[in-house]
Amino acid sequence: MRSLLSRIGTLGIYGVALLLLAVGRLVSIDFLTVSNMLTVLNGVALLGIVASGMAFVTYSGHMADLSLPAIMAFSGIITVASLPLGLGLALLCGIAAGMSVGGLNGFVVGRFRANPILWTLAVAFFMEGFMRFTWSNNQVYPDITPGSAGHAFIGIFRSDIGPLPLIIVVMLLMLGIGQLIMTQTRFGRESRYIGSSRAAAETSGIHVPRVVMMNFLVAAFAASVAGIFITSMNKLGVFYLGQGYEFQAVTAVVIGGVMLSGGRGNMLGVLGGVLVIGLLTNIMTFMAITSFRQNIVTGIVFIVVVGLQQYRLRVGGRSDQ
Amino acid sequence: MTRQTNSIRITRLLNENRALLMLCGLFGVLSCTAPHFFSLQNAATILKGSCLNGIAAIGFTLIFILGQLDLSIGAVVMLCGMLTVGLQPTLGWGGSIAVSLLAGGTVGLVNGLLVVKARINSFIVTLGSLTIVMGLMFLYSGGGSKAVTDFRFADWLERPLLPGLPLMPPIVLITLVLISTASVVLKHTRVGRNTLMVGGNPETAWLAGLNRDRYMLGGFILCSLFAAIAGTLFAAGLSAMTSAAVLGNRTLMTVLAAVIIGGAMMTGGKGDVVKSYLAVLMLTTLFNGVGCFGQGFEVQIFINGLILAVVVLYEAYAIYRHDLLKGERPDLMREVAEGRAGSSIDGDQEGEMTMQQRDRLPLICLTIVAVVGVVAITAMYFHHSGKGPMLAATLPAQTEAGVDVFALCGTDGQPYILPEAATPTIPPRPANPTVLAESEPGHWWDVEFAGWNVKKAPMPASPGDGPSGKRIVLLKAGDHPYWTAYVNGFKAMANAYGMVPKIYNGNWNLDLQAQQTEQAINERPDMVVLAPVDATGCTPLLRRLNKAGIPCLTSNTTPCDEAMKYCLAWTGPDDWGQFRMLARTFADKLGKRGGYAVVRHMPGSSPFFARTYAPITELGRYAPEMKLLAMDTANLETEKTMQLVSAWLTKYGPELKGLILAGDGFSMTGTLEAVKKSGREDLIIVAAGNSKTGMDSVKAGDALAITYQSAEGDGAIAVHSAAQWFKGESLKPVIYLPKHIITGADVDSYMPAQW
């Protein structure tokens, strides 16, 4: 009985999603169409990719990585800058650049237990200054003459796999693989222990710094992939791409039932959270609610959903406060 | 042994006073090196500039002491500032301040109840309330700014209490009083010490019978209240408030950094209001000093990040060491501190190695960060001094006699400036524009024709000796590729006239631009060109420049009518005129029929209105059969625009015939993606220009037309007008850049794009 309750709880966000689908259907007949659902997915695909990485940071009890936007912009700029080396190598360079920042984060937070929020905030400042300075606040344009690596690069965001755009496939893949890693691997279980109690994890012989490092690396990898997509989408790299994604991703992760205190939740919930955010925005645009009011509604929905989750946990006697 | 203990004590002393030490060190270094830094006026500028963040930091320190976080302070600052200025005309200062403080307190109460009663993590609660409060602020302001024209209160706040002592205007005094009161209450009263105990050691506090919930609730209310006071004082000091969200976000980030540097810990129980204020002062000094060098925001944010990183690392390192030694005997701990740990605890060679390796790692890491930082800063210094304004002074001053400024061309091959165009005809002002509907052109008369009929305040007289050798300061709005091109044009024209340019970067933050205006005044340049961050919020800045007797021009975005009083002239693109032309091109292509939608600019900017209502009002006259289906902002972000336009395309289907975009960069990219996905090929798209993305779209036939707004010309025309004034020529109150609509027919002559 209890496990049933908890299963409903984890996937409760899908209840919200279903509710939104029903509301949307009432608002407009065009809402529940394949093309509009693709629109919704397309709009949140980038968010989903970032959230799939952020979820690991949150899951292992490190709240949030505020440097993810900087990593997105950095990996994008590096990719564009190294396009002369060929597309494959450029993508590798971009991802490596992003992950090196993640590695630094993971090392400092894992080894010295620096406060993750503050450290990643400092890194975000640092990286912003660095990128602004190095590229003189300019946008970096790839050479997009047909046949060149740049042309192939901007095609990344615009390509399809079967009926689905590539970016949606990548999002679903990353969330799916993330779910497997989180629940089925040793790394996932160790992250969970660290998130639940770092001291207990240490005592039980888990090499905590290494696992934390891995968590931040996974987050940086996801952000780098998102950075490549956002750069390809905009056809240019610039230091402010990705701004705002850190808090949006935390919102999606937390709505999806991954507890900020760590050790609880899963990637299916995160997918639900991402979908709810996309559906909500879409419905409000259909209802001609302007973006100012959308802010208010989104904020209230966020607090209410998370509040209900907390309430459910407390009733189940498993509150973490 | 004693020496060792002493060294530990000294380290601790240094660490505990690190904010003060950093402040003194930074102040000392900058006084010796930075031009125009060391003066009483500049010290006053720094003190005044740290009021907003300083007061907000009080509440934030308190929340830190309680082991919580409040991300909503930036939004509260903006909402309360907006309420103060917005309600003043009806309620008077007393009433409006009371209402805004009440609003701030209410936000805190809600935050607190959600944390205490619903037991939701404060990070989540305040992340949610951040969005909500920001939304309320936008809703109240309509995405514009608010201002009062009664400057008496603002003047009182800024006026030095004692003549000859500029350091202590009331606004600074209020800040200091609030800080010392908070500090005394926290340290020397029972409530204050209880608060520290609740945050630092909840179990003991519980055993001592303290009501944790009550302290938490009080903490959240006070935190929002202090943020409200900060916002209220800021808005009152300027008599204006902007709705550009950057102000709130930067306030949050700066205060967060300052509180950490000041020594508060996120785990709770530790924090000092005075030290937080010192750290705020330190960061303000840093921004001020870097500005004195004429360096951009990149250097400031870089150093800010570096300092924060070192502090966070140091804290982590201290705890790490502490944890390593936890449970050991004190004499052993001392021995460990002396580096003899391994041998005394355990003779095992292996154990010793790991201990020492573990010990060294943080030191190595710190050293690496420090070395990278020093190298980077040095590199930046040399890099910039090679081409920056510092060297510009030593360049041989060219006389303008040899240079034909009209022949100078930008990177797009177009001339920077054209010989003066004819003065446009200005329609008569309606009796009361605000009663007209927003779709009536008359409603916007005051915005569209701001400055044409304004009665100027007394202006300084032109020296009449020509522009050569004159020092001209540009207060630019922020960093953007457009602004990089703008500065190129500005510098090229200044060079042609033999003027010495210096540039401050406001980073879209009204608080920062206000400080930089004072810095510019302290430098006493021959001319200031202000590119306002906010159309209304720039009024007090221009007024200060005018009072100081410094001639100034405004540039780029149109300031409000009131602001035009205090400047010689405004130069820049005729946003309204351009968009009227664009709208007519748009309507002609559509046969003056069908529905259309507008993707708006960023709220808080003047194009947010100009590029929305110029086409709407123009189409209302020129093509009354066309129907406005929807309009909204997507904050100029690609994926938001894509979501927005996709939803519109689904909702309106074939009814939607065309789109008007306020930007041709990310808005254009997002729109084109959405259109492509929908399979529509008949949509007509026009946009503000002219970036590379926009021109590529016009060339590819995806977009019908964009406006021609030369960024380099925008910078050049400001300098050109300044030069004319130095020569003693009279200036028109409003000086427009040439107007043109770029279509597929002539797009090639505007390539390559400037940005």
Explain this structure to me?
- The complex is a heterodimer of chains A (321) and B (755).
- Chain A is an all-alpha fold and 321 residues long.
- Chain A has a domain at 44-267.
- Chain A has 14 helices and two strands; from the N terminus they run αααααααββααααααα.
- Chain A has helices at residues 2-10, 12-27, 34-59, 68-81, 87-112, 116-134, 149-158, 166-184, 186-196, 198-203, 208-234, 245-255, 267-286, 291-315; strands at 160-161, 164-165.
- In chain A, strand 1 (160-161) and strand 2 form a beta hairpin.
- The radius of gyration of chain A is 20 Å and the shape is globular.
- The two termini of chain A are 24 Å apart.
- By secondary structure, chain B is α/β, with parallel strands linked by helices.
- Chain B has four domains: 2-158 and 173-286, ABC transporter involved in vitamin B12 uptake, BtuC (Orthogonal Bundle), CATH 1.10.3470; 317-386, no CATH class; 405-421 and 454-572 and 712-737, Rossmann fold (3-Layer(aba) Sandwich); 575-708, Response regulator (Rossmann fold, 3-Layer(aba) Sandwich), CATH 3.40.50.
- Chain B contains 29 helices and 14 strands.
- In chain B, the strands form three sheets. Chain B has a six-stranded parallel sheet with strand order 4-3-5-6-7-13, sandwiched between helices. Chain B has a six-stranded mixed sheet with strand order 9-8-10-11-12-14, sandwiched between helices. In chain B, strands 1-2 form a two-stranded antiparallel ribbon.
- In chain B, strand 6 (552-555), helix 23 and strand 7 (569-572) form a beta-alpha-beta unit.
- Chain B is globular.
- Chain B starts with a helix and ends in a 12-residue tail after the last strand.
- Chains A and B meet through helix 3, helix 5, helix 6, helix 11 and helix 12 of A and helix 6, helix 12, helix 14, helix 17 and helix 20 of B.
